[in-house]
Amino acid sequence: MIQQTREKFIALFGKEPLIVVSPGRINLIGEHTDYNDGFVLPAAIDKKIVYAVALNGTRQCNAHAVFTNETVSFDLNHVVPTPGWINYLMGVVYQLQQGHYPVEGFDCVIAGDIPVGAGLSSSAAVEGGLVAALDEIFRYGMSRMDMALLGQRAEHSFPGVKCGIMDQFANLHGKKDQVVRLDCRSLEYEYFPFDFPEYRIVLCNSMVHHSLASSEYNVRRHQCEEGVKAIQAQHPEVSSLRNATMPMLEAVKAQLPAKVYDRCKYVIEEIQRVQDATELLKKGDLQAFGQLMYATHEGLSVLYEVSCPELDFLVSLAKERPEVAGARVMGGGFGGCTINLVKQDKVDAFRGFVTDRYQQQFGKVPEIYVTTIENGTTVQKVAAGAPDARA
After folding, report:
1. Locate the Galactokinase N-terminal domain: which residues (predicted)?
2. Which of 78, 83, 219, 312 is most buried, taking the most CB atoms under 10 A from its CB?
């Protein structure tokens, strides 16, 4: 894919590009905790976005998407939200401009094999790849955390998704064969080896496509904030659900709508599950880790209500299989993938079982991806003749 993207760029724009590989991500546990200042446990994976980028000496940006065979252009003097995939690129450019980073006209080709709407964070891969490319070309000297925060702001301001920091963080900080526990309040993080050679990470795509820009994602965030406000009346020091405890929540239960209570209960319990999960990784106890994944799915389905019949069915299939250590819905929900920890020598049997049963139940074939944990966004080739923005 990298070579094809480079060749496409040369055919379209007639010059040698910078190449950047920007991965999707999984999250083993810790869902919807990031925007509540909690903990998450993501990793970068082998599904990726590939960028080929070079300057063009104008104030125009031209982007060609291989996946839609479409070229879109925008003027750097008029960067405003625009429908479609180009909105993610424009959001990054806008936030760079807001941060007084110089941006000149560039051409780019984007390719990728991250399934859109599958919960693998294709949007963060698009954002992270572009900011890393422009940082390399213009020599901004941004840290990886600076890039992640800028990508998050881009998603907030242009697509309008009030996402937490996890997706952009994992995209830019991933390390091969390691998961990373991120404290979304302090932004401190720690790597943990995911060293279970007998198991593979298998993603089952429900083929139910979701958009995190849908109103439901932001509704969940507002419900969590409503719970925090009620707790603050008795505990002013509580600034987010990260600070809250179940006794605090129980004390205000009568004041809260039932759904708000349920949302907050899930988040408080999930923040603790991430802490417990990393201790289990240190001990090498994947079976107990998997049970926490099942508990997360139950919470996401019943309390947080971001699952759907298709995802619940996929997890129920996983529970029938002794080769599966754990499974749950992954990502924002309302569709997308389940993540499953499957014994390596049983992956083919698991794939066949899930495919047959799911097709019988829903009349569609799930896509199944066997993934590996890889490095985060990497710059593979430096374009010649770029200006130095630090000069």
Report:
1. 7-54
2. 312
> Is 37 annotated as catalytic?
no
Contacts 24+ apart (CB under 8 A), 12-17: 12/64, 12/71, 12/107, 12/109, 13/54, 13/56, 13/62, 13/107, 13/109, 15/54, 16/54, 16/381, 16/383, 16/384, 17/52, 17/53, 17/54, 17/107, 17/108, 17/109, 17/381, 17/383
Using the predicted structure, report yes or no on whether residue 281 has a pLDDT greater than 90. Answer: yes
Which pair of tokens denotes residue 196?
A: 């279970």
Helix (H) or strand (E) holding 290: helix 286-298
Distance separating alpha carbons of residues 289 and 211, to the nearest angstrom: 29
Q: Which of 135, 167, 262, 312 is catalytic?
A: 167
Q: Which distant-in-sequence residues (6+ apart) come within 8 Å of 110 by Cβ?
A: 5, 49, 50, 51, 63, 64, 65, 66, 67, 85, 126, 129
List, for residues 14-68, the tens digit of each pLDDT value: 999 999 999 999 999 999 998 999 999 999 999 999 999 999 999 999 999 998 9
Q: How far is CA 14 from CA 17, 58, 108, 136, 196, in A?
A: 9, 15, 12, 20, 46
Model's pTM, two decimal places?
Answer: 0.86
Q: Residue 193 above 50 pLDDT?
A: yes
Average pLDDT over residues 342-348: 97
What are the tens digits of pLDDT across the range 284-303? 999 999 999 999 999 999 99
- Give the DSSP H/E element, type plus range, for residue 53: strand 42-55
Judged by DSSP in three states, 58 sits in: coil
Q: What are phi and psi of 285, to 5 degrees?
A: -95, 85
